[in-house]
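Weekly sync, protein design subgroup
Attendees: M.S., D.O., the rotation student, P.L. (late)

Item 1: inverse folding check
M.S. brought a backbone from last month's batch and wanted to see whether the design step gives back something sensible before we order anything. D.O. pointed out we never logged the input encoding, so this time it goes straight into the notes. Structure tokens as presented (593 positions):
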């Protein structure tokens, strides 16, 4: 086999899965011409084949080096080129699989991997394989990932700003659910994309249902009902992180939920209703009751008849007012309330009146009326998010107050994961129809120094999601800021261009394959090019994502500074900008183009 044109050299060292191969002098030029094609020898990231009888071992070149051998008289000097190879898989006959069942021996031959070999590895369109791009070293070879492993074992797509991250995400999601000519091949797919900057609607609107806080034409209103949120987090948001009111607030929540269960004839044991039971309750009524109790004064010592000036109205958030206690004659008015919650209740009222939180605190048809009835229950909300006719749901969170992103995103994750847990034995549950959660800007709420509901939920999904049919895909430009425990649970990594050394070090530590040489090439990757490694990839590979069709790019392009600044001066009126700001709607006053 030494005479074969693909022969590179021989194995001179074996250390675990790492091999050192000494190249034959015949490839000194660094080029081989095979079947009319020119192949470069020793390129980091390219593949090597080591025949083992009927089987073939495959490895990836991670380093190249040169050694100088000197003779006894310092006259006979020869140079030897060496390559370091990481073993990653083997073929048995025509079937390729990750992992190796045997190791090579010293002096075993090493051969160049040709396109025929690559097609054996990547061109096998097995069921469950998703073709998402082309191999960087050969544009004629499609590359794919295993969809089952991609979803079940979680993944992360990482890259610096400008590396093509948003375009790659939209290209990958489109590849998952569609085939040629964008025909939907997976109509029952369940993918939820958390769009932090509102940039994916332009790329995926034909295969997505879009819910937004500030909906444009063709989009629906996004509502996150407050009564689905963790009660502790809700109280902290409404009243501040002050524990004095928490117990009373919790009691009011339970009483309201029991009332809802009775009025709506739900067959639920009252003793089993807790603040965490997903039942609607009237938040305005709780504010009114707490304010009433905190400020009440009485006409009599027995405290049976309140001394009202105005009874107020909980529907309009008007508090009851009382006559002040008469210290000279206690029989006229007796002090009742301790007025210890005024600050917390004032904050709660201001939150309830703040229009920017209406999608959360006044969630449309999920808001209980004065009779404790709702037009739509939790089942309809879940159906909106994961039961659509379109395979992708985009939750546009770009209009969400940034200070509350953690609470509200965490609440959505909580709703979805609880649905997965309690529906695990049902046909509509995620075990039967798995769910993929794609989380943009993951470093904002999953950082090492951050603690909150979102991080708790993502950690839980990363550890337990596989059991209940929930997978996650993290998308971030700062992998070094993502909690290490969460990133380590991502079985598949798509690493685009990463310039920062700290971020590269985190990616290197997260990769299961010891391919340090390949990771070190991350700063020189082209836009839209990535190194893919992990559970879903047949082999670690350098590849390029499919380029979207015209008009299917995310709305994330950079401003054309030189072009715009060269335009003639034009006086602008900022009235609409201020009105849009006040209305908390970035699209309501947008001019027609």
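Designed sequence read out in the meeting:
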């Amino acid at each position: 086999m030494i005479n074969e044109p693909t022969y590179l050299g021989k194995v001179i060292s074996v250390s675990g899965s790492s091999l050192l191969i000494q190249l034959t002098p015949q490839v000194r030029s660094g080029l081989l011409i095979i079947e009319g094609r020119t192949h470069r020898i020793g390129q980091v990231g390219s593949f090597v084949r080591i025949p083992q009888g009927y089987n073939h071992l495959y490895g990836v070149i991670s380093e190249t080096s040169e050694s100088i051998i000197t003779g006894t008289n310092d006259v006979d000097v020869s140079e030897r080129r060496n390559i370091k190879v990481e073993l990653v898989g083997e073929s048995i006959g025509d079937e390729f699989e990750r992992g190796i069942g045997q190791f090579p021996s010293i002096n075993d031959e090493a051969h160049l991997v040709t396109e025929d070999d690559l097609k054996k590895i990547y061109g096998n369109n097995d069921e469950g394989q998703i073709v998402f791009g082309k191999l960087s070293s050969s544009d004629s070879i499609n590359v794919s990932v295993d969809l089952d492993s991609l979803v079940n074992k979680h993944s992360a797509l990482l890259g610096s700003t400008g590396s093509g991250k948003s375009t790659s995400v939209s290209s990958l999601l489109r590849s998952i659910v569609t085939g040629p000519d964008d025909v939907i091949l997976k109509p029952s797919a369940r993918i939820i994309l958390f769009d932090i900057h509102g940039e994916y609607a332009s790329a995926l609107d034909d295969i997505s249902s879009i819910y937004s806080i500030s909906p444009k034409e063709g989009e629906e209103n996004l509502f996150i009902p407050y009564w689905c949120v963790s009660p502790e987090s809700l109280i902290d948001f409404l009243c501040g992180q002050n524990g004095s009111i928490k117990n009373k607030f919790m009691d009011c929540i339970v009483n309201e939920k029991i009332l809802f269960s009775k009025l709506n004839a739900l067959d639920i044991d009252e003793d089993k209703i807790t603040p965490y039971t997903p039942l609607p309750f009237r938040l305005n009524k709780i504010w009114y009751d707490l304010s009433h109790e905190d400020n009440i004064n009485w006409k009599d010592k027995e405290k049976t008849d309140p001394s009202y000036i105005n009874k107020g109205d909980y529907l309009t958030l008007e508090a009851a007012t009382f006559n002040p206690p008469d210290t000279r004659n206690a029989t006229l008015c007796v002090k009742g309330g301790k007025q210890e919650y005024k600050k917390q209740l004032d904050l709660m009222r201001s939150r309830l009146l703040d229009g920017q939180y209406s999608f959360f605190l006044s969630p449309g048809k999920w808001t209980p009326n004065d009779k404790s009835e709702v037009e739509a229950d939790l089942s309809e909300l879940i159906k909106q998010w994961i039961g659509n006719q379109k395979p992708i749901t985009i939750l546009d969170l770009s209009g969400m107050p940034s200070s509350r992103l953690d609470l509200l995103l965490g609440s959505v994750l909580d709703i979805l994961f609880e649905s997965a847990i309690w529906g695990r034995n049902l046909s509509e549950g995620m075990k039967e129809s798995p769910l993929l959660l794609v989380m943009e800007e993951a470093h904002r709420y999953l950082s090492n120094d951050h603690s909150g509901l979102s991080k708790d939920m993502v950690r839980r999904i990363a550890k337990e999601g596989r059991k209940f049919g929930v997978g996650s895909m993290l998308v971030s430009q700062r992998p070094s800021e993502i909690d290490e425990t969460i990133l380590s649970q991502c079985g598949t990594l798509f690493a685009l261009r990463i310039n920062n050394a700290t971020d590269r070090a985190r990616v290197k530590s997260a990769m299961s394959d010891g391919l340090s040489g390949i990771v070190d090439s991350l700063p020189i990757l082209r836009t839209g090019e990535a190194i893919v490694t992990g559970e879903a990839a047949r082999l670690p590979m350098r590849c390029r994502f499919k380029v979207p069709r015209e008009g299917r790019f995310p709305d994330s392009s950079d401003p054309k500074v030189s072009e715009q600044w060269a335009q003639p001066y034009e006086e602008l009126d900022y009235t609409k900008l201020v009105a849009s700001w006040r209305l908390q709607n970035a699209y309501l006053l947008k001019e027609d183009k």
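Discussion: The radius of gyration is 31 Å. The mean pLDDT is 86.
Action: P.L. to compare against the previous round before Friday.
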